[in-house]
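Just scan my protein:

. . .
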Amino acid sequence: MRLLLDTCVWFNFLENEKGLEVLYSIKKLLDEGQLDLVVPDQITTEIERNLERLLNSRKNAMRTYRKHANNLKRVLSEEKTQLLDEVLNEADSNIPKLKLECDKIYAIVQAVLNHPRANHLVSTVDIKAKAAERGLSKIAPFNKGTKNSMGDAVILETVLEFQRFNPNDTLYFVSLNSSDFSDPKEVNKPHAEISDDFSALHIVYSISPGDTIEAIGNITFSDEAKRSFYVDSDNKYIQIWCEEFPKECCECGGALTGNGYRIMFGCAGHMLSCRKCGFMHHVIDSDY
């Protein structure tokens, strides 16, 4: 049994300790020889490039929350302001604990990535050429013009090439990136433009790390652990870096409504959803 965790799944592990229950189980399955990990070099490159930002994401988010909380003092009474200061001071005292948690998360991620049963795959010139051809042909994962999907395409082609030469074992391809890899109408299934390859090469597509590892290892996880993986299962989304909120939906031009403040893939910001089509906009906080 083989397992590939897409870059976004590793990002989720690095910034959310609630998913560690799943990661520890993956390591146990590797230790017991029940599982082999497949790691394209594109994934390790992206992890290394974003590592510092991901490990500091919660600490940076805490600073952002503090700044917003301080702004509330303008409209609070003196008594309420003192109470708010007490809460903020208590939160500040916990920041060193965040570093210890980050160190623990980094250690287990490295242990899994560098496990003896981890197959590290090199993206060759031929693989990169096939990935570029997907971009020129505008086929999955190049489904929308909202972001550069070359990295996703390299990961996909690397995995397909690996399975062509090693077709006798099932590989689970687990991603939270349903916008690029999933069927637009049924996000639990692979996109039509990659589904034939997946079927022919015994690749099982999944957008749920928790459910997948439960099935592979006959394990039961807590609901909290499984919910720690954010998937845009009903709506697609885009991350936006801008000074002001968008005036309308980037997908259909519809009106937007706020859905709170979230951290996703190492970035904190405000989530907006379209009232018309449901498309999600993660507007990255400029103070983050």
Notes: Residues 64 and 288 are 6 Å apart (CA to CA). DSSP finds twelve helices and nine strands in the chain. The mean pLDDT is 84.
